[in-house]
Design a protein that fits this description.
The structure is a single chain. 34% of the residues lie in helices and 26% in strands. It has a six-stranded mixed beta sheet, with helices on both faces. The protein has a four-stranded antiparallel beta sheet with strand order 2-1-4-5, covered by helices on one side.
Length: 254
């Protein structure tokens, strides 16, 4: 690749008990880029995504071999809860379904920082507004900040979750099919936001939407049955696939 990777995935295999979900995956994910993981369901995309912030550690049967490095440090050599907590604080994660808390927009935004920083609610207000603006949400809900977040539309709730994650100033953002439950207009707003957000963050996104990968990502990895078949610049992968598998996937001939 033509730039220094912030995330280095080296010969990573993942297991759930005796089931191997990922086989010898290696990637370099450059800083301030959008890297898309594509492939059919159950091919290892989300397993690898959730390994980048060690979320799979919460599954008792999970085991990983190989290494995942962030800024040159192997995160699987972290042995203390404090180290893992600091890792997860620096990596935001957005899921397929929006998960706002059943409380006001303001309290949703305050939750992450209240766990890590001291200050009055008012002292964080400017930061909250700024992150809601980054998420292209503030103008839509300016008069509803003290209303329950559950009153927002699905697309607004998802953008609220992104704005909430930004409160901790993550250097990496992980997205697991963030637009799969949204309409085209909400999807467009999130895609435009992600293209702006990569100026501040490195973004990894799992998507089943090939068109979305082409629209927003700089790099793409194609997964099949637990292996990375091809990876590289998105334009190159889609315009000139090197394997029959990727050609069939792009042509929807699977």
């Amino acid at each position: 690749m033509d730039s220094i990777g912030i995330i280095g995935i080296k010969d990573v295999s993942c297991f759930y008990g005796n089931n191997q979900a990922l086989k010898n995956a290696s990637l370099e994910i450059p800083k301030n880029s959008i890297y898309a993981f594509i492939g059919s369901s159950g091919c290892g995309k989300t397993t690898l995504l959730r390994s980048i912030n060690r979320m799979n550690d919460l599954i008792e049967s999970f085991r990983l071999t190989g290494s995942i490095e962030i800024n040159g440090e192997n995160i699987y050599e972290y042995t203390t809860a404090k180290q893992v907590m600091a890792l997860r604080k620096s990596i935001g994660m957005i899921f397929q379904q929006p998960n706002p808390l059943p409380t006001s927009v303001m309290k949703n935004m305050l939750l992450p920082i209240k766990e890590h920083y001291r200050g009055t609610n008012e002292s964080f207000r400017d930061e909250i507004i700024e992150n809601l603006k980054i998420a292209a949400l503030y103008e839509e809900i300016e008069a509803r900040l003290d209303k329950t977040a559950l009153s927002l539309s699905g697309g607004q709730q998802q953008r609220l979750c992104i704005a909430r994650a930004l409160m901790l100033k993550p250097k990496i953002m992980l997205f697991d099919e963030p637009c799969s439950a949204l309409d085209p207009i909400a999807t467009f707003k999130i895609e435009e936001m992600l293209k702006e957000l990569k100026k501040e963050c490195t973004i990894v996104i799992v998507t089943h939407n090939m068109e979305q990968a082409q629209r927003i990502s700089d790099y793409t990895a194609f997964f099949y049955q637990g292996e990375i078949v091809e990876s590289g610049k998105t334009l190159d992968l889609f315009s000139n696939p090197q394997t029959e598998l990727l050609h069939k996937y792009i042509s929807r001939k699977f």
